[in-house]
Structure formats: C-alpha cells, structure tokens
Amino acid sequence: MTDRAFAVVRAGALTSVQDRGRPGHAHLGVPRSGALDEPARDLANRLVGNPLGAAVLETTLSGCAVRPRCPVTVAVTGAPCRVTVDGRPAAWGAPVRVAAGAVLDVGSAADGVRSYLAFAGGVACEPVLGSRSTDLLSGLGPAPLTHGAVLPLGPVAGPPVYADVLPWQGPPRELVLRAGPGPRTDWFTARALRTLATAVYRVSPAGNRIGLRTEGPPLERAVDGELPSEGMVLGAVQVPPDGRPVVFLADHPTTGGYPVIAVVKERDLAAAAQAAPGTPLRFVLTDRR
C-alpha cells in the first residue's frame, strides 16, 4: 500500500467514511447515505483544500485516533471536541499539520454527537456506485473503522484555508424540525396532528444513522391495520406501532410499511444529526411539502 495512508489506532464507538452519498439509487433499494451533518463535512474539506465531494471520517460521540503514514494536513469540525497530536493540544476547526507516524486523536464530543475529520487528499477507499460512503443499512462501502485498519489517502488537491471566523452553528439546545405534510396524514386523528405540532419530544438514545428516534406522547391512529410497503424519502417522519415518531436520516430504508405523517425539511437534518440524546425536540408543521 502507498505511504499516502493512515492506520486506525482507536476506532471509537462508530467511525465511518462519508462523502456526499449515493443519491439516485433508491429504485435499486440503495439509500442515499453520506455525511449526516453536511455543512460540517463541507467545512472540514474546505479547511484542508479538498473539493467538497471528498470523503471524510464521521465519528460518533467518542471520536477516534489515527496514525498517518505520511505528513498530512487535517481538520476537525462538527461536534466540538479535544484534538491532540502525540498528546499535545491541536486546533479544532482549523488546518493542522500532522507528521508521519504521529497519533492524531479526535476526542469525545464535548457538545453534540458527530465530529468530522478531513485529510488533505480525502479518504481514497474504492468507490461503490460513485460514492465512498459507508452505508450501515445496505452494507455498501467500506466497513466502519476497526482497530488496525489502514485506509488510503488521495492526492492533495489544493492548499489549506485559514480563517479567523468559521461559519459554524453549534449543536442545538432545542431541536426544531420544520416539516410539511406526509403522504399518510389521513391515517392519523386530528388530535395526533395537534400533538405533533404542540408537544415537546426528546431525542432518544436509540437513534442512529438510519433514523432519529423520539421520546414523548404517542400519535393516535385513525386507520387501523397494515400499510403496504411504499417508498420512503430522506426526512420522512414515520410512526411505528408505539406511536412515537422516527425521523429518517441518510441511511434510511428506501421502502417502509409504517405510515409517514410528515416530512422534515432537508436543511434541518444537519441539526438533527448533532442533537444529543435528551435534547428537547419540537416539530413545526407547515402546509407545504
């Protein structure tokens, strides 16, 4: 393997390779996937001089540690965390030069859930259907990081970018999700729609890259029985039998058999990716999809 690579020293709770994902393959049963917090991914790539489509590492809560085999410029964005190089403090949200053989440690999220680690040149594992993203649901793309794994890096595309101020909005203290009507609002009572629009839910610790689960009042069905499986989109608010809404994220299934009461605006999903368990959540319903 080329020296333009890095080895995994600490994999963390869940660290995966993510880029812009695989849009356009739902008819094949392949989810979109890609980074959950797209602005954080793009910012990390800008800081190291990468094109925005370059693949980065997405960590979950506990960070990760890697040892580059070559000198490389890196940047960490997303959930704020402690960054060190061989135990010495390094900048978060800025380009950092890491020597060959040094250990770069991205610490646990101090706030939020997911941090993003970009390398100059990008993570260059083999693309599948035009993307290097790890897809937890379908199993496409590289496996989540494991201790000792070695991943290649691509050629450097441009110089790093230094900035005094970053266009970054921190993790939400209260998650507000704007949502238009779903295709199955008529499967729910008027009381359920009022509940969805007025109740305060909380982000459940049971969520993952497939969906954000909620804790709160159940939504009452007006129609009993089963729904034939139908297509699902990013941001769909599906209501399983326990009545508590689930917001579908990037690795969501392309079809599902529970009714969708609403669809969250895509621009609000980055905040959903950073909402820690226990975060208060409100849905703001609009009359437009």
TrEMBL record:
Gene3D superfamilies: Cyclophilin-like (2.40.100.10). Residues 27-289 form the Carboxyltransferase domain. It comes from the Bacteria. Keywords: ATP-binding, Hydrolase, Nucleotide-binding. The keyword Hydrolase applies. The keyword Hydrolase applies. InterPro entries: CT_A_B, Cyclophilin-like_dom_sf, PxpC. SUPFAM superfamilies: Cyclophilin-like. Pfam families: CT_A_B. This is Biotin-dependent carboxyltransferase family protein.
